[in-house]
Amino acid sequence: MLRVRDMDHLAYLRSVGITENDLQNVVVSNLETLQRLKRAFRSRYPHLMTSVLKILLDKGEEALACQMVAYYELSLDDEFIILTLSRLQLQVLQYVWVFKRNFMGQRYIYEHETDTLLLQPISPITFNQLIDLITHIHSEETSQEIQDHCISQVCDWRIDTEDNLPLAMLYHYKDAIYLEYIGKYKHFLNSELFLYSLNHGNKLFLQQAMRLGAFSKQIFKDEDVIEQTLVILNDGCRTNYLLNVLSLMDISLWKNKHLKELLGIFEGYVENSYEQNALLLSSNPLMSIALTAELLNYMATHRKRFENECKKVCSDVLDLGKMFLTKVDDERYYESLMMDKDFRGRPILKIITENYFESLLNEEDPKGDNLLVKLWHGRESSKCDGNIYGYSCLTHVMTTSGKKTSAGSTFISLISNFFEVNYEQDYTFQYRYRTRSISVYFAKEFFFALGLLILFQQVNYDYLTLFRAQPDYLTVQNATDGSNSTEIVFAIDISSYIYDFASVQFKYEEQTSDERSEMIRENREVYRQWQIYIVIMSGSLLLQLVLRGIFNVCTSYKGVQLDKWCLMDALNATLNIIAFEVVVNVPQWTLEETNAKYLLDYLMIAVLILSWLRFFIYFLLVREISKMLLTIYEMLADTLSFVFIVVCYLLIVASVFTTLYQDVNPQKFGGMAFSLKTLYDGAMGVYDYNGMKDREVQFSILQMVHIYFANILLMNFLIAILSYTYENMQQISVFKYKVNVYQYCERYLIGFNDESFSELILHPPPVSLFSLLILPLMIVKPLVKPLNKAFSYLVFWGENFVMLSIFFFYSLLLLPIVCGKIFFNLMFSGQGLFTVIFYCLVWIFSGLFFTFGLLVRDLTYLFGILAMHQGCRQAMGLPDELKEIIVDPDVKLKVYNEVRRTAIELFLELRKQALSTMGLPPPSSDHMMDPSSPQFDMDELDVLDMLDNVEEQLKGADCFMLKYTVIHDEWSKRRKKTVQKVGPVQNAEEVKVAAKKGKAGNQLTSKIATTILGMIDMPSPTASVGDQPSEHSKSKLMTEGGKVKQQIVDQLLSKSKKSKEAGDEVVDLHNPADMARLLDEFDEDDDILDLDEANQQQSRLEEKLVDEFLKKFIVNSERSTLEYIDITLMLRALPNPIVGYNLEDNELFNFKVFQDSLVAFQNLDIVNAFEYYDTKNRERTHQIKEMLQTQRAELSQVNDIMSQVKTQIQHNENAILSQLANAPPGSGPINRSGSQVFFEETSPARKLLGKRGSTMIRSNKQ
């Protein structure tokens, strides 16, 4: 029997479900009673077991805790959940979910009377609640990795449950984590999840899932899904998002009613005003316009019923896009719009070039050309101002005039003309800039293409000289007596002499068959010597295809396509190898027999033509030549139909002429072939009328008719076609040239963004052959990036060797000129007569050696500049004035979401005031939209539903237009309140005072420590004091938004490490108290960061970010020229919180630019946005005029009625007065006939009527 000695202990046992009766009646006498006791502990005492479980977790006994969860009933509480999550003991939680014990509180209640367990109606803890707890417990910025690690472990549980874990992750915007486990939870990929991600704005998930084909195609055919998608698209809040989704769906399978509705939405993009225009709410209107035009073209191609409507709307949309781009003045904003990527990873520039949207890359807008030039030469090429005069003393001496100086200048200064190397400027040939310049890669590829052309041309020439018969050439000479004499000339080389082949007859040299076979065999051996060169060079061309495939497989870009240059390389290489192998391996008789050799000749001609075409295709990137080549190509394409007509015509007239004149003149018309030749010559102006005997007149008439049709009509028709094509190509050829430039640049732009496999696709053949050296080692993942970087440096210094050699020979050419120029400079240096004579004599005998020394020094300078891989300014520690300030994305996310929250709260306050002013009752759910209400939850607030309800309640109200400074000031006020609650750090002086005060300053020092802790990113909560900050922390500390410098962090870590080494108490850098104790150890001489300055700097940065963010939503207001923001439009554009993967999208908003462009487009003129309001004012003035005219007509009718009333009243008054005059004296107001007197002349009613009547008459006259 158990004896209770402590009443407190007994109270505790009662609290966990164990009564005194239970303790007194427990007797363990045998195995059966022990089993009963065990079962009782498993089911009847969940509170006690939970307490034991907490003890196990606190002691680190995770395995025992898991066993206990498996076998014992529990009563979970907040303390248990927080304990497991904070200590990252997620295996215990896994057992909780696996054994279905995920309930808060006691799930079963034991009933003593019946000895049974009663199930309580308790809802289980869902995955959504669990992830919400994880995000709140690890909510700090430094705990983001821990947070993602915890959620990933939850995904690894793989529990078969109906609870939708993917939906919970999407709710918390954990798209990246879910994509890693999308295969394990593919059974949740249904229409419900698809529609939820559409409404919730899970861009990253939908983008990757649809590109992977994760959703069933039947989902996109479901009418409910289509209708819901169109509803969301029509709302206009996620235009870019929805259009990207539609571009990955096959809309050609939709029903006509849905396509018609979609077409109506697209028409609204060009017809609706800016208040209702969905493109205004698009972060990148240019992307929306390009995708809309692409979808319209797709609809027009696959559904002919809507072809005409689609083409019309597409043309209007592209015109709107053209107007939008003309309104964009900022080059950086233009580049951001153009290089923004859709769901397929295509930049907008690629969409434009793929679909030939000429309006969006118009020649009249120079921003497109500037962007292509920037991409061509490198994004950072504008930072390079260095040139040859910065490192070449010889060039400097040759091009500058000598300086006259006073005595004291050194001899070296005089001969170098006071040259100083320029290390203050960067040079375009340095590694940082050269490896990112597409023009450099093009120059190399063009040079190697020329070399390969020369090689293939030489191989073809050897074929011509080695595999031809050895002829004798018989030249026919006329004798003086008029007879013919023959002179035999041997061994004339056709390729070496200018010869009149019109008078040459060929006669093969008499050789035996064995001699000819031996000669051909020897020539084939000579020709076979080219095999190694053909195989290597052609193999390097084919290797380009293989390397691109490897790059696409090994990287996530999958975007390096087979452009025309790569396809031409592959075709040329294949044909070269085939032709060469055929020539050296065909049977010997093939080269001896004339007809068989003709086939080989045709094959070699095809190789020769293709080699030249491969070379000429690079001229498509040279602007002027490209325009000519494209014009010629279009002319050939446009004349194909004309050629068909000409061929048909010639066949008809050839049949006629052959039928009529084949017997009369068989030399010209003896057959269809002869007739075609004769008639074609006639069309070209070579004809006569002779040789037709008695049919000469008939023939002449037919010949004239033929010449009229062929030479006059058809030829001039051809000229007209070519003229039209030429004029049309003057504009289109420029756009097609830009298309070719971008298609060529695309491969390099993709490669520049990859640090692992970029070197596989950047270099031209045959340099790409060297990538085979590193390709086998790239299967080892840790070696990929180092090998890629090493290969890049290897190629760079290989090119530098060539560059240094060229510079050396260039300088050698300058030596004689520079020697003379230096002698001339010494003569007029102004150093004194004897000094000048001495210097001149020295220069005469040793000037060449000194000049060569200057050359060597120039080479040293150039080598040193090349060794500064990241530029001279960075190597010399000079500031970069053009460097863009990088703001920490976490700071942006925090500030932008604070502004969004401020806008929502302002909207709710304005709505409340408007309802109160209008006397309307608040809705029943108003407490859910009151920020001061405890039930208010910003995360649960449906912004779109809130806005729709307000539009119904306050339709037409204009109370949500505010100056952007009002929102800015409101944010500042709320920000100050938040900072005051947290307790900001004052300044460094207070830090030192607090450190001296000891315990008295502990509170302030703890606040300082908390501030610093917020900026230190430790890898895990269990990190030791000697751990260093991560690279993320170091980069974060160097950004403009950092609150502390690396110096103070290093000092704190150093002090903590010394304390640990000295055997003192271990310091936890995640504990604000320990951090405060470290700060107390600083003396007055310690260089502590001025935290007040850091706070001010952080505040200024946030103020700047808020100002820039709010200006994106400014619209031109009708009421004033000041900058206003429509909060409803702003919130519609930001329906969901801003997260990491849509941060860049939200930075592209610019309401004012699109408003100006839309107004200008709808007014068919380039005007500012205020003309829109002028037009509206004119319409209102016209309406007011119509209202005044209507009112005037009504008043005229009233005037007529009042005149009639007045006349009638006067008539009645006259009648009454006459009756009163005739009445006897003393009679009352009623006459004798019983008639009532209306009123007397002096009665108040009479006076009032007279006044009103006269007033109305005057107003009518006015």
TrEMBL record:
GO terms for cellular component: plasma membrane. It comes from Halteria grandinella. Keywords: Membrane, Repeat, Transmembrane, Transmembrane helix. GO terms for molecular function: monoatomic ion channel activity. PANTHER family: INACTIVE, TRANSIENT RECEPTOR POTENTIAL ION CHANNEL PROTEIN. GO terms for biological process: calcium ion import across plasma membrane. InterPro entries: TRPV. The chain crosses the membrane at residues 438-456, 530-551, 571-590, 602-621, 633-657, 707-726, 761-780, 801-824, 836-856. This is Ion transport domain-containing protein.
